[in-house]
């Protein structure tokens, strides 16, 4: 199966590239320009097009949202003509306010109030109306080791530099390891390619919903512990400060049962992936720690 992935520098694109390198049943091409993507679709060589999510809907400008929406609409037309599967990933922030309790079901179409989010909902409506073979995958806040929107490297660099990080105590999310999302998408597409016929909207988020403050505090705690284990100083680490939303508590907690029941995709525990990625980040920054003398003797 051949995949075309738009936005080559996005953390999801890089994670998909790494995942496909380990497999023999998938091929992948990365493109950055809409023109290149449309030409590739027109060639008829690709089975599916994957569009990574636009993150930080609370912070980016309406112009950025419009540019993203226009690109996706161009891809809808290209996929319709070529018969290519469209996979559109979108941030959980499409649910503008979230819910005070419970989880957000896959079948619940977002009904935001802000114009930029309404524009994205209209894009989703077009996908459902014009492309029978599609996946709309709503995801929790992604974090990974590299690439645009990877989130974690910026957090680690800020904390290591001794700068304070503000995080919302009353915003609850399901942090989502990007590697887990990449594996899920590959598994879903292969099942669909083999006749699953399970098109539509799905949710994927990390196990254990937490407040944004709790997640960032966990990043700091894990960073401090791993620095200490390497004998590196921790006194200068930045602190994490809780802040609160003007509009009160928001829960953007996605119910992921449909993805599990349909494709057998399990949510990835974000705490385990967080530990691994911080260790990897420290290895790249300071080199891998030496094994204890007793272990070196055993290895020799």
TrEMBL record:
Cited InterPro entries: NAD(P)-bd_dom_sf, RmlD-like-bd
Every RmlD-like substrate binding domain range: 66-280
Pfam families referenced in this protein's UniProt entry, alphabetically: RmlD_sub_bind
SUPFAM superfamilies linked to this entry: NAD(P)-binding Rossmann-fold domains
Gene3D superfamilies reported in the protein's UniProt record: NAD(P)-binding Rossmann-like Domain (3.40.50.720)
Domain of life from the UniProt record: Bacteria
Protein name: RmlD-like substrate binding domain-containing protein
Lineage, highest ranks first: Bacteria, Pseudomonadati, Pseudomonadota, Gammaproteobacteria, Oceanospirillales
